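Class, discuss our next protein.
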Amino acid sequence: MRASGIVSIVAAVALAGCAVAPEKPERIALPAVGKFSAEQPGETLPSGWRVWKLSGLKRPTEYRLVDHEGRTVVSARAQGSASGLVLPIAIDLKEYPYLHWHWKVPALIPSADNTQRHLEDSPVRIVVTFDGDKSKLPLDERLFADNFRLFTKQEFPYAILMYIWENRAPVGRVIDNLHTGRIKMIVADSGAENLGKWRSETRNVYEDYRRAFGEEPPPVRSIGIMTDSDNTGTDAEAYYGDILFLRPGVPAR
């Protein structure tokens, strides 16, 4: 592939919703990486979390800490928009393999389909990024990362794993990103049956990473949330509750 072709793909990923984490992850007090319920409702972002924009050409999604059904959660509202919140962290999945979170989706994005490049939207995403040695990647992926950095002035992670709510794909399915092999989406919830309900999800990120990428997972560098509807140009609303990493045998709360 010529350089111009690579740059065009890099641009597409940057504009389509690729979560890129801050470059300096920090160690935090585990297990709660997103203790939203301990925050005060209002305009302020959750402690330690940052806004990240995908592109200056994209309208940002609106995130707020709100009192919803008696507890503080993050409210997300997208209007043909895409942006997220991210927390830089440093976690070894051999010690904390389980990720537990709560989310609530009032309605699906009717035309969204994460298997189609031009319809790749989701009312909720939990985004985990990883550090790793990019020199071990195939040449095309190294070129992709280099051109992404040149185009966006941001460092592309070694790998990105997203948990999404899909319209039709079954729970557990791994969906490949159509631009790069370093992004994989895993369906954590699907269909309309559980709309309007708080859903409690627990995933073994260690095993999910191995299944998705076929290798041992490197350290986690960030955790993020994203509600996006930019590709379909529609509206989406969602709520995010507390997010925790857990050791084996520790019950989720």
